[in-house]
Amino acid sequence: KAGVTQTPRYLIKTRGQQVTLSCSPISGHRSVSWYQQTPGQGLQFLFEYFSETQRNKGNFPGRFSGRQFSNSRSEMNVSTLELGDSALYLCASSSGRGPISNTGELFFGEGSRLTVL
Amino acid sequence: TQLLEQSPQFLSIQEGENLTVYCNSSSVFSSLQWYRQEPGEGPVLLVTVVTGGEVKKLKRLTFQFGDARKDSSLHITAAQPGDTGLYLCASRLTFGEGTQLTVNP
User: Fold this and answer.
1) Chain B interface, mutation test: which of A43, A56, A94, A107, most B Cβ atoms within 10 Å?
2) A105/B91 Cα distance (integer angstroms)
3) Which of A6, A62, A83, B14 counts the highest number of beta carbons within 10 A?
4) What is the mean pLDDT of residues A15-20?
């Protein structure tokens, strides 16, 4: 059974640009969540999607957005990049029948490492 | 939002030693997960605990859930260099800051 796939694995952008990251969940998983991981802040929750609907959103500015498609694949977008957006962005899927916040167990991809210059 | 506090933040030990990592909250957990993350990879689920007082074992790793379901611990017996990594506790969408464990040969 294929795991969670995130693309691209690495990318470098400059300030002011925008970026789109993609996540394909484990087959059959309908819940997807996104996290930002930095050395100083740890794993911070960005958003959670279930059946194409955003169920929860973390405390991030509106520059961070996401969506989920009918096949459960998800994308997140960061506009007007800032230096502080440099981080590892992790996507996780869940086998729960409901949104992740009701089941807990997450299966992570390897992440997309974004560097903003 | 439930806050999870992990301690210690960093731990460097010699191969063969035992260690314990703690995860605490002021709120009651409905369930709690422990993950391990290695450099350049995403976290990997180790265990889920649900019932107060529950103890689960995974080879040399022992996970305990507090009776009041507000705390949890991870104990590693006879640590090996392969145990090196970032150990994270999590409840639903909230993660602790992690314990960076280094086991030296």
Assistant:
1) A43
2) 9
3) A6
4) 98
